[in-house]
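Hi P.,

Sorry for the delay on this. The queue was packed all week, but I finally got your sequence through. Input first:
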Amino acid sequence: MHTKRFWGPSNPDRRGEERRAASFYVVELGSDGSRYLRRTLNVSSRGLVLENRLATERPGCVMELEVPRQESGPMRVRAEVVHLLARGLYAVRAVDGQTFDDAGGAIRL
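Then the structure:
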């Protein structure tokens, strides 16, 4: 009998980038001009974990986010949903080579 075996470390968190705990809001921009606040729980250079209690996102869904920056005005980032977590949380990663390096701070509504 053949089985698949994972030969790496037993730690389920295999990310190579540092993640930081966060507590700020990003704005998800809808195709019809609507704006939805999403709370950010942690951030890395390539991704965010966001909270949406309605949990309408699915893996592969691409969205446009307006992300506050610490030093200047907000930046627009295209992001793809890559993982659904429990309790309405989901992970997104930046596409098109964009990063979240200086993400955080206040955003003008």
